[in-house]
Backbone:
């Protein structure tokens, strides 16, 4: 499988660093990697070709090659180009004075229209609108029921009309909105193939019947090369205004976003990234660019950490951490937090160069679970003061946790190395993520107050302390490899 | 109409496009020159084969055509057809022919699991089998209602619980009901989930293991449990990551490729089938009940290349 792009580029460029100057052949090698990364991300073949050619031309400009950090410059050029192509500024949908405004969702089967419609309604309701969801998909069994159930959960009105004629339902929904004092209808249409003449004509008919202020196309982030033909056909027939990319909470790189921009010029407006109704986010071209290239996304990770409601380290704990005096209670807390962010593996991957650090071996998240089992067998006093752990105590703990004494010893060693790591990091108290307490400097500046809702996993533990029953004990529940306690060691190495 | 004609008809749009692109190749250069290879590369990548698989296929193809001294472009394309067909893992037997059998359908959101279950239930009834469907998708709004409608159309009983119920317990009840009523084709729909969601994948692993355990306890006749990944043909390179993860967690038995009636070529299925050694069990080429068809690598590949 593909290595991470930043990793591969770093490999190429680290060989060049000694030369201090890039040649055209070097740039060619880098461009080959970029081409592969884009294809892997499902960017359309032709778009890739054009993109690589133009990036190469830019990279070959003499000031780039002769600069002190040519490798860095090449990456920057590619990122900039990609971001620019994805759209440099956020596009907002304009409302018209008409009551109600109408938005219409179109797309292929299974792209996520119904879910997106509900999320959109939820978002607009929060912004003070009074949306009416309209079930104009009369073909898929129980599509209207699905919309109705979602509407009930979100306390949003749903209009089903006669459940037979999509055009009639859409038209009638405008009057329904007036009667029910709604200022906006969001029409969920049936999934249709772009080559299905009859269905495309129906979409046009719905459009002509309601003259929507905005037509949004919902596109699955996992779609492959075919996306170009699909969006071209939809652009031609229904002429949509913008795109909602769905299923971006997966690990698909979503290169289709680039293809859509390149082929139709239509903006990506929202990304849908999770099961929760709040998981419809504005589109950020720079983040998308990094994602498509398979580069780490530190900003998203930081935001994820900040938004994760359960991620609260108490003041006192933060102070202890700052002085590298953590005890086993903190150890458990930290491990739980790390897990909430997707485990050490995903944390590492999100850091630049992290993929490289990981390449030595898989981080075994299950190892964390096993440590927590051991810590649970300690007394409260032992957890607070790890220095108490002498031989007999360790033997008792091992027995309680059902492990060998050596496992307890290993844990203590781990704990020591984590302490050392904290010392090395010279962690200031304000660098530790705390309760959402605004602090001077840093934080506010970095995020410009953008508070974007991020997905929370369906299921999983509650707030506060870890739900131990949900951790797979004694198995390789979350991990992929064998027992590998070097995970934290890697983390430690990262910060050296 | 022969089987091949029906498949070709379903795949006609796909074929049309690929054919156009390949005929273009032939028209432009009946000679096997560099531009022929470049165009072939484009054709494969645009069909979602992925860059690594494309590279491998083309390298082998080049090598072999030189060795065999193939005279022209069309003979190279004929060889390509064979090569693509050979990459699919082969099924020892059609697991839907097993009697009795219990099949769980898994996959990401919107890949077409519920619809596939509905179509298979109908097909099973037509073959005179005793079909039972179970709705273990207790998460998505109206998923149960959707399956209900399909079951009603097929005229088969459906085991369901309220939304939000534990899906593993539904699966348990389905197998229990199957044993009680002597059902011999048991189809269980599960909630769509992204392979990258650890919690949901763990939940699904539990559903599968509970089903396997309960089925192992069936007395009269052993009830084998099979797990099938439903993959949308429009899926790009992420399809491989999906299949790998589902396979690692659940030990899959096969793939059903849906939505081949559009223009998507489903090239990712080749990589998935080959890498994970999973046979394609059915392909979906339309909305109608009998548009879910058996898969034949030769025909598929031939229809794809448009020979």
Residues:
């Amino acid at each position: 499988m593909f290595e991470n792009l930043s990793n591969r580029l770093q490999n190429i460029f680290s060989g060049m660093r000694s030369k201090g100057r890039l040649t055209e052949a070097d740039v060619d090698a880098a461009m080959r990697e970029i081409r592969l990364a884009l294809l892997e991300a499902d960017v359309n073949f032709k778009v890739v070709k054009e993109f690589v050619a133009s990036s190469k031309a830019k990279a070959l400009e003499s000031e780039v090659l002769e600069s002190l950090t040519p490798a860095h410059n090449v990456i920057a050029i590619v990122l900039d180009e990609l971001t620019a192509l994805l759209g440099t500024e956020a596009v907002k949908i304009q409302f018209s004075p008409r009551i109600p405004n109408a938005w219409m969702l179109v797309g292929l089967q299974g792209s996520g229209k119904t879910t997106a419609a509900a999320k959109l309604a939820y978002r607009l309701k929060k912004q003070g609108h009074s949306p009416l969801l309209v079930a104009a998909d009369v073909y898929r069994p129980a599509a209207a029921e699905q919309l109705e159930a979602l509407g009930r959960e979100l306390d949003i009105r749903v209009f089903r009309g006669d459940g037979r004629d999509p055009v009639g339902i859409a038209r009638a929904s405008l009057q329904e909105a007036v009667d029910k004092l709604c200022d906006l209808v969001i029409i969920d249409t049936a999934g249709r193939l772009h080559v299905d003449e009859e269905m495309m004509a129906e979409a046009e008919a719905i459009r002509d019947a309601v003259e929507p202020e905005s037509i949004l196309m919902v596109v699955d982030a996992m779609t492959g090369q075919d996306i170009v033909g699909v969006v071209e056909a939809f652009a031609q027939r229904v002429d949509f205004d913008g795109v909602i990319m769905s299923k971006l909470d997966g690990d698909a790189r979503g290169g289709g976003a680039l293809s859509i921009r390149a082929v139709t010029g239509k903006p990506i407006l929202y990304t849908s990234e999770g099961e929760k109704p709040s998981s419809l986010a504005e589109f950020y071209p720079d983040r998308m660019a990094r994602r498509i290239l398979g580069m780490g996304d530190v900003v998203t990770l930081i935001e994820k950490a900040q938004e994760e409601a359960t991620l609260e380290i108490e003041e006192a704990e933060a102070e202890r951490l700052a002085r590298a005096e953590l005890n086993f209670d903190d150890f458990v807390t930290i491990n739980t937090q790390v897990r909430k962010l997707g485990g050490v593996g995903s944390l590492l991957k999100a850091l630049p160069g992290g993929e490289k650090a990981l390449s030595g071996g898989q981080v075994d998240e299950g190892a964390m679970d096993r440590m927590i089992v051991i810590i649970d067998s300690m007394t409260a006093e032992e957890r607070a003061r790890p220095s108490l752990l002498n031989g007999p105590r360790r033997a008792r703990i091992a027995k309680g946790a059902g492990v060998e004494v050596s496992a307890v010893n290993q844990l203590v060693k781990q704990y020591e190395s984590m302490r050392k790591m904290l010392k090395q990091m010279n962690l200031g108290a304000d660098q530790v993520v705390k309760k959402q307490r605004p602090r001077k400097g840093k934080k506010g500046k970095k995020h410009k107050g953008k508070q974007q809702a991020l997905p929370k996993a369906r299921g999983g533990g509650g707030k506060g302390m870890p739900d131990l029953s949900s951790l797979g004990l004694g198995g390789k529940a979350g991990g992929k490899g064998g027992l590998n306690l070097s995970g934290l060691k890697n983390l430690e190495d990262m910060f050296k | 109409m022969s089987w091949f004609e029906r498949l070709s008809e379903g795949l006609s749009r796909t074929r049309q496009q690929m054919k156009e692109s390949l005929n273009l190749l032939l028209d432009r250069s009946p000679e096997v020159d560099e531009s022929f290879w470049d165009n072939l590369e484009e054709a494969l990548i645009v069909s979602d084969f992925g860059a690594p698989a494309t590279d491998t296929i083309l390298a082998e193809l080049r090598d072999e055509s030189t060795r065999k001294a193939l005279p022209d472009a069309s003979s190279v394309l004929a060889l390509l057809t064979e090569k693509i067909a050979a990459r699919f893992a082969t099924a020892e037997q059609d697991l839907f022919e097993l009697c009795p059998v219990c099949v769980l359908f898994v996959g990401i959101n919107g890949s077409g699991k519920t619809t596939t279950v509905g179509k298979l239930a109908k097909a099973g009834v037509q073959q005179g089998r005793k079909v039972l469907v179970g709705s273990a998708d207790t998460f998505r709004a109206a998923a149960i209602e959707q399956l209900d409608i399909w079951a009603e159309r097929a005229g088969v009983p459906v085991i369901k619980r309220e939304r939000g119920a534990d899906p593993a317990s539904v699966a348990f009840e389905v197998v229990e009901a199957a044993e009680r009523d002597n059902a011999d084709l048991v189809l269980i729909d599960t909630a769509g989930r992204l392979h990258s969601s650890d919690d949901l994948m763990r939940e699904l692993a539990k559903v599968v293991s509970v089903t396997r355990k309960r089925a192992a306890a069936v007395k009269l006749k052993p009830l084998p449990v099979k797990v099938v990944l439903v993959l949308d043909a429009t899926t790009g390179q992420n399809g491989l990551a999906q299949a790998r993860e589902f396979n690692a967690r659940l030990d899959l038995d096969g793939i059903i490729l849906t939505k081949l009636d559009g223009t998507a070529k489903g090239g990712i299925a080749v990589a998935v089938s080959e890498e994970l050694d999973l046979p394609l069990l059915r392909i979906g080429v339309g909305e109608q009940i009998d548009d879910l068809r058996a898969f034949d690598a030769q025909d598929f590949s031939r229809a794809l290349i448009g020979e």
Remarks:
- Chain A touches chain B through 58 residues (CB under 8 Å).
